[in-house]
Amino acid sequence: MTALSLKNLDISYGDVQITHDVNLEIADGESFALVGESGSGKSTVLKAIAGLAPEWTGEINVFGKPRSHGIERAFSRQCQMVFQDPYGSLHPRKTVDATLGEALTIHGIGDRSARIEEVMASVGLDRKFRFRFPHQLSGGQRQRVAIARALMLKPKVLLLDEPTSALDVSVQAEILNLLKRLRQEQNLTFLMVTHNLPVVSFLCDRLAVMRQGRIVEVADVADLKRGDLKDPYSRELMHISAAHAN
Amino acid sequence: MTTLRDWLIDDSPASPMQARLGRFYRIFGALMHNPLAVVGAIIILVLVLTALFAPWIATHDPLRQALGERLLPPSAAHWMGTDELGRDIWSRVVYGARITLAIVTLVAVLAAPAGLVIGVAAGYFGGWVDRILMGITDIFLSLPKLILALAFVAALGPGIENAIIAIAITSWPGYARVARAETLTFKNSEFISAVRLLGASSLRVNLGHVLPLCTSSMIVRVTLDMAGIILTAAGLGFIGLGAQPPLPEWGAMISRGRSFILDQWWVATMPGFAIILVSLGFCFLGDGLRDVLDPKSGEQR
Amino acid sequence: MNPLLEIENLRVTFPTPRGDLEVVRGLSFTLGRERLGIVGESGSGKSMTGRSILKLVRAPGRVTADRLTFDGIDLLTRSERQMRAIRGARISMVMQDPKFSLNPVMTIGEQIAEALLTHQRLPRREVNNRVFTMLESVRIADPERVAKLYPHEVSGGMGQRVMIAMMLIPEPDLLIADEPTSALDVSVQAQVLDIIDELVKRKGKGMGLIFISHDLNLVSSYCDRILVMNTGEVVEECKAGELMNATHPYTRGLIASIPRLDETRNELPVLDRSAWATK
Questions:
Q1: What pLDDT sits at residue C273?
Q2: By CA distance, what is B199's nearest residue in A?
Q3: Is residue B2 scored above 70 in pLDDT?
Q4: C230: which of A201, A235, B88, C27 lies 20 to 30 Å off by Cα?
């Protein structure tokens, strides 16, 4: 079954058109990466799916149902997002408990305490962090809270916007392992935006390379591992990334 | 005592209450490291205590006239001398603290929330809501505060209640501006986007998430404005449109003392000192609060 | 030949309510006209090391060292005024993000010229020539047009090249680059690094470079020698090519935790900090 499908998606900010004719099909349970440099429009696609960039034409279907331009409650239980900056994505005046509990209050879900502790345990956060403020947490812990918040409503799809690019490599490894484990345990579908090809190689099944608002290539991650991308631009990205690692 | 402190600065609070109290304790601790803020806080504390215990602190009835003791210089019997009707100035200054405190509190309670709500709404919704609300705000801002207050008092009739209403009406636009600017910086932040993605309504996002972030700068702004409010109230009192005689309002007292300023300097000077002292106190405290509460720099340490 | 920079037992301390916090703990190294990489994670003290060489650590932070000499000058005893003559002219620093380092209300040409004129007097024509040559040497194709632009009118990569031009126009002997390419796309990153490299090697004189970064791979492919820092101490010092033979468990852990382009591991190894923590 298709979890997410984008058809002829053109997204604009005001008069500027950011993406052109984006078409993607992401299967249920798949982990898909959108790769590109800054300004390629990859984050904008994620925002449009989430409902944060409402000026688009074309079609966005989630589990077969077309998505409206705004943010709806029913949609928010299916699809959640994890942001790039663990310092900017948590409310500075709210404790972990308040941040996680907000989702339950909005959707009128009871059993608050037990559910918060359950989700905290599943993202590897000790109970002692429950009433801390964000400034009392490290970057990695904050990102765990952000992931926990996204999981509070038990969504099927997670949109990941460069979830580890602001973290140290040792912490990045922890978060990547966590995401991989969560995906297996909860049968999640991932759509991740990143510029880091090795991260794609670790976490994803397929990838799309974007440049100047267009998708230039869709490939299997197996092709990436073999160094077998077709498009010249994606090959260039791959080569820079490979040269960098040696 | 040490156990209470440990409980407050515990890195892993066990309840929301403890987390919140811990936060206040840290803010309080940081504030106490700033000597000027401590001075300001002490002045304000003294003002509050004076207002509360005025009957015990005052040595005379502030309204009792004794025409035989007119315009006496400061002495052991009358610490700040007496005015033209023989009333004890010290006692009048002490009772005046009540009026001053009532004015600043009521203005803060009326104007700050109004400004906050209008500013947050304008900033968050943008578009025509923003244009209309900010248009009204700009109209109010473009008129000098005292003149506008004068106009309102003239329309409503002189008196302390109307002076308070007039000052409140003239001070909300400043707060609306601050709140709007704050809201604009926060509204596109990732943590607000995250709450919206959870399906929260605009009302919920604004009241529960944007507004609490604006309150600290609002508290700072209001504290710094207190001096101006006191001066405006005193100004209205001075020209006879604020507190009416025989109420011991400091501005009105200066106004009465004006006629004797050269020969009996204490009549106007004593309430003047009180105004300066309290205004300074609010300024010091406001500056200290700004350093501690600034959402961008504060609390990170 | 004397080394360009000698540091012995450098310590940077910040007072906190819970006692003094040492962010750099007894760091020592010498630097010639070479490329030295300092790698570490956030909080390792790598940036503070760079700042303390220029004595840019803000109060209440304190810098102490047994020795801190640059080209025979004892930096520890220099006054703030004397330091200003050294900063820019002899030691320059490139920061992470050009957006925050360039003055938004001055054109690029004016800013570069100012960097030059602060340290020497030159006729106007000469200044313009030097600015244009400098912009050319950071591979800006039409320097005369770019010199008239304001910082917001150029891209991030171009901004960072302008920063480098500004830092290098007084021809310093030592360049400290603190994450100079972290805010840039990978393709631009390579260009900027090439430019710095060219300038380090140019002429007979050359320049010393301290390259501070969190990116182990980048530093190892770019520098001659590497210091790996963790919690304020150097845990590993080696030639760049030999990083893969690193011995310290921290360094090995870091290298292992980076995913590879042809990743086959199902789980990335996570640093076990208890393995070497003795305190």
A1: 66
A2: A73
A3: no
A4: A201
Cα separation values, B195 from A107, A149, B214, Å: 12, 9, 17
Q: How confident is the model at residue C219 (pLDDT cuts 50, 70, 90)?
A: confident
Query: Does residue C277 lie in a domain region?
Result: no
**What value does the CA radius of gyration of chain C take, rounded to a whole number of Å?**
20
Are the C-beta atoms of B243 and B163 separated by less than 8 Å?
yes
ipTM of predicted assembly, 2 dp: 0.90
Half-sphere exposure of B249 (CA within 13 A, CB side): 32
Report the DSSP beta bridge partners of residue A214: A211
Here the tokens at position B18 are 């403890």
Number of domains chain B contains: 1
> Considering its fold, how many domains does chain C have in total?
1
pLDDT tens digits, one per residue of C13-49: 988 777 788 889 989 999 988 899 999 888 888 888 9
Neighbours of chain A (3+ CB pairs under 8 A): B, C
- Residue numbers of the domain that contains B166: 99-296
Q: Which domain holds residue C152?
A: 5-257
Span C175-217, pLDDT tens digits? 999 888 877 777 778 878 888 888 787 766 678 899 999 888 8
Q: 3-state DSSP call for residue C205?
A: coil
CATH of residue B205: 1.10.3720.10
Dihedral of the CA atoms C259, C263, C264, C270 (nearest 10)?
Answer: 0
| pLDDT of the residue at B1 | 54
CB-based contacts of B256, cutoff 8 Å, min separation 6 = B83, B84, B245, B267, B268
Reported as a pLDDT band with limits 50, 70 and 90, residue A79 is very high
How many folded domains does chain A comprise?
A: 1
Report yes or no on A172 lying in a domain: yes
CATH number of the domain to which A33 belongs: 3.40.50.300
Containing structural domain, residue A85: 2-91+156-245
Return the closest-CA partner of residue B46 out of B282, B231, B227, B253. B282
Q: Which two tokens stand for residue B238?
A: 């001075």
User: Is A76 a member of any domain?
Assistant: yes
Looking at chain C, the whole-number percentage of residues with pLDDT higher than 90 is 12
Length of chain C: 279
* Residue B63 maps to a domain: no
Contacts of C267 in chain A (CB under 8 A): 177, 180
Whether the predicted pLDDT of C71 surpasses 70:
yes
Q: Find the range with the poorest average confidence among B95-109, C112-126, C183-197.
A: C183-197
C-beta neighbour count of C58 within 10 angstroms? 7
Per-residue confidence at A120, pLDDT binned at 50, 70, 90?
very high
pLDDT band of residue B301 (cuts 50, 70, 90) is very low
In-domain check, residue A101? no
Rounded to an integer, the average pLDDT of C143-154 is 88
Cβ contact, residue pair B199, A73, below 8 Å: yes
Q: Is residue B51 less than 8 Å (CB to CB) from chain A?
A: no
Q: Which residues of B touch A73 (CB under 8 A)?
A: 199
Mutate to test the interface with B, among A52, A67, A76, A93 (most CBs of B within 10 A): A93
Q: Does C80 touch chain A (CB under 8 A)?
A: no
Mean pLDDT of C2-11: 89
The answer to whether C222 and C228 are in contact (CB under 8 A) is no
Between chains, do B194 and A133 touch, taking CB under 8 Å as contact? no
Asked if residue A139 is part of any domain, the answer here is: no
Mean of pLDDT values over A142-171: 92
